[in-house]
Amino acid sequence: MTDVSFADVPQPDEAARTEAVRRHAELLKPVSALGELEALGAWVAACQGSAPPRRFQRPRVIVFAGDHGIAAKGVSAYRPEVTGQLVDNLLKGAGPVAVAAAVADAGLRVVDIAVDGETPVAEYKVRAGSGSIDVEDALSEDEVRAALRAGMAIADAEVDEGADLLVAGSVGVGATTPAAVLVAALTGAEPVAVVGRGSGIDDNAWMRKTVAIRDALRRARAVLPDPVALLRTAGGADLAALTGFLAQAAVRRTPVLLDGLAVGAAALVAEELAPGARSWWQAAHRDAEPAHQMALDHLDLKPVVDLGIRLGDGTGAATALPLLITAARLLTDLPTHAEAGVTAPNA
């Protein structure tokens, strides 16, 4: 259906990963004493093709913003106009992800893909809001192609400007509803299994959300196994752009920290479109939404942290970013036993 395609995804350098593991065994610490930090550092080394890895020079947090017609059905604790308000505040540095990005010394970029209103960051805007997926397609065929290309272009621009680590986030009232539909469609889960509390909805809203997901999932399953048709039918412009962004980042050999449910759902679709892309992604945290764990399980990704965060704007990933930086720096900066003049264990 689509003429959007991705180049073959190269794989991270396994020789560099092996060398990183070997180096960890010689560093000034007991063997395996750093736990998962060692695996994270080795992943960075593999992505960079260098052991020890280089220091990150330009980590970037990219937040994709978009509205969803399904929000009008009362599936969120917030009114639809809040998306634009959140974008305005993020551009002023106000918002959890803005704080977390600043702490991690990472640049923050917000991109309006489908906000239902005017914003100053609409260069890649596809449309104002996406369709109400319980009764209509989220996007037209031209729009889903445009959204995928927008995500690809954003990834290319960031890498061309020197980004060596990307963090993906999402802002949009009602976004967890289409995200849950995508996860259910691609994992075979039933609607009730993927419904979460999202923005903090009450029981009545939870029931409305369950019905919306059920109806949208019925429509989504009719277009499987075509991932682009799935985005068109039951996704949204922001989710399609995220999909293109994640896939193209992998094509460009650039590691990505994934945030919450919306990003995880897009990652599922991106892996379908660009097989092997998941090797370039690290799950930063586990969202409180049940569908997020399903997505991570399907992608075979283990979260760096599990703090009960239920924001999808990149806060969890930006919070995990210093841990990833530390994991890489330990490989780079820590001396070996021999270099430090310390007798190695069992020597």
From TrEMBL:
Pathway membership, UniProt: Nucleoside biosynthesis; alpha-ribazole biosynthesis; alpha-ribazole from 5,6-dimethylbenzimidazole: step 1/2
InterPro entries referenced in this protein's UniProt entry, alphabetically: Nict_dMeBzImd_PRibTrfase, Nict_dMeBzImd_PRibTrfase_bact, Nict_dMeBzImd_PRibTrfase_N, Nict_dMeBzImd_PRibTrfase_sf
Active site per UniProt: 313
Superkingdom of origin: Bacteria
CDD domains (UniProt xref): DMB-PRT_CobT
Pfam families, sorted: DBI_PRT (PF02277)
Name recorded for this polypeptide: Nicotinate-nucleotide--dimethylbenzimidazole phosphoribosyltransferase
Organism (species): Amycolatopsis methanolica 239
Top-level taxonomy: Bacteria, Bacillati, Actinomycetota, Actinomycetes, Pseudonocardiales
Gene that this polypeptide is encoded by: cobU
